[in-house]
């Protein structure tokens, strides 16, 4: 008799997920600091948007070649390299706030993220079956979401540490980045030990034309692109929005993102039940559609506290669909094309997401604080409707 949470998920897959925690903590901290701390030390919201946008653009450039390569030679080495790259990125953010240096670090981070994004979902799918794949993606979503939330929550403790250690805010932020750089080395080395005997399927050399699967990839990714287009307008900039509109520093916006991630992690357990009851497509539409209502309500709230509560509800509902969507896509695509599918899907999400982050940062810099939410909601509605119409009759295959 199997015991534990999601007992049917293979043990190796669980450890694969658990050992990425160290990198995920650092990534959660990085996202919070870029959006919330850098404006405090003099970078404009436009520069913050540029740093975040460059990361996404670098991912876009490398993701498809890396995805194709992973389908041909295997995913393990590429995944490990992508995780290892994040250590020097953390180091750069830890030693300087120079905009030029941070842009270059952001580009390197985008390359590492591209390697991770092109291989992670595909690798989980390769190591699972249709019966336990939803559970594996939920475990991944929970563990990495909570780990990123821990990283995002770290600034909450900075005022206390500053008093105890008698150091400045800049110093505590820098020292934490250096610690994250060290932790960033742990995950790839631990995973290399775990996977040393793992033998991967290696496929033939392939191009972009792959018959019906490419059509499915493009339709699914097209809907995801609209979601990314909307999300980029404001979601990565929520800490910046809270700072500009309510003067909320990262010592509070960081913990807010942490609570969001932890709540999302718990809520995704429910998503598997929704998927079984309504089917993957209808469950995804239900979660995303309901969350869009709360997106519209965020800027209408009379204060920071209520806005934060509504943001949390929106985040939970939208991200409940995350593991269902990842599992569904990997289950309608053949094993030989999952790396390509993962890469294309991430590109068409991150490219518009990166472009609109520039635009969202410019709107916030101009003092236009409500419009990004409404534009995002409109794009969400188009994306959700298109996804339902195109996939309501397509069932997972294997």
Considering the chains and any ligands shown, give keywords for the structure.
398 residues, mainly alpha, Growth Hormone, Chain: A, 15 helices
Could you explain how this protein is built, in words?
The protein is an all-alpha fold and 398 residues long. The chain has one domain (13-193, 207-391): Up-down Bundle (Growth Hormone, Chain: A), CATH 1.20.1250. The chain has helices at 11-18, 21-40, 45-73, 76-95, 99-126, 133-153, 158-165, 169-194, 212-232, 238-246, 250-278, 280-297, 304-331, 338-365, 371-391. The mean pLDDT is 83.
Task: Produce the secondary structure layout.
Blueprint: H1 11-18, H2 21-40, H3 45-73, H4 76-95, H5 99-126, H6 133-153, H7 158-165, H8 169-194, H9 212-232, H10 238-246, H11 250-278, H12 280-297, H13 304-331, H14 338-365, H15 371-391
Strand/helix succession? HHHHHHHHHHHHHHH
Termini Cα gap: 25 Å
Largest sheet: none
Count of DSSP-assigned helices: 15
The average pLDDT is 83
Q: Give the fraction of residues assigned to helices.
A: over 70%
CATH class: Mainly Alpha
* Category from helices, strands and their pairing: mainly alpha
What proportion of the residues form beta strands (DSSP E)?
under 5%
For CATH, the homologous superfamily is named as MFS general substrate transporter like domains
């Amino acid at each position: 008799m199997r015991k534990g949470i999601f007992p049917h998920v293979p043990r190796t897959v669980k450890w694969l997920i658990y050992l990425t925690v160290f990198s995920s903590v650092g990534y959660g901290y990085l996202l919070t600091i870029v959006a919330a701390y850098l404006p405090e030390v003099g970078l404009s919201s436009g520069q913050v948007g540029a740093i975040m946008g460059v990361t996404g653009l670098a991912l876009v450039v490398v993701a498809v070649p890396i995805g194709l390569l992973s389908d041909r030679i295997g995913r393990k080495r590429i995944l490990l390299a992508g995780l290892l790259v994040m250590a020097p990125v953390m180091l750069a953010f830890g030693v300087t706030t120079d905009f030029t240096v941070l842009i270059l670090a952001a580009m390197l981070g985008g390359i590492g993220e591209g390697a991770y994004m092109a291989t992670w979902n595909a690798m989980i799918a390769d190591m699972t079956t249709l019966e336990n794949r939803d559970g594996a993606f939920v475990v991944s979503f929970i563990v990495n979401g909570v780990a990123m939330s821990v990283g995002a929550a770290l600034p909450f403790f900075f005022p206390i540490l500053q008093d105890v250690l008698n150091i400045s805010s800049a110093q505590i932020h820098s020292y934490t980045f250096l610690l994250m750089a060290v932790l960033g080395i742990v995950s790839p080395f631990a995973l290399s030990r775990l996977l040393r005997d793992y033998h991967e399927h290696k496929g033939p050399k392939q191009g972009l034309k792959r018959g019906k699967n490419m059509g499915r990839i493009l339709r699914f990714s097209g809907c995801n692109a609209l979601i990314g287009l909307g999300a980029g307008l404001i979601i990565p900039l929520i800490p910046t929005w809270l700072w500009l509109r309510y003067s909320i520093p990262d010592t509070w916006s960081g913990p807010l993102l942490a609570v969001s991630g932890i709540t999302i992690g718990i809520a995704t357990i429910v998503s598997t039940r929704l998927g079984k009851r309504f089917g993957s497509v209808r469950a995804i539409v239900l979660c995303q559609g309901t969350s869009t209502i709360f997106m519209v309500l965020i800027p209408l709230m009379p204060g920071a506290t209520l806005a934060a509560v509504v943001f949390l509800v929106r985040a939970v509902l939208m991200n409940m669909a995350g593991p269902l969507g990842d599992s569904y896509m990997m289950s309608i695509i053949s094993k030989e094309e999952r790396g390509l599918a993962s890469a294309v899907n991430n590109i068409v999400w991150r490219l518009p997401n990166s472009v609109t982050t520039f635009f969202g940062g410019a709107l916030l810099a101009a003092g236009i604080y409500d419009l990004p939410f409404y534009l995002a909601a409109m794009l969400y509605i188009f994306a959700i409707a298109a996804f339902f119409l195109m996939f309501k009759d397509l069932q997972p295959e294997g």
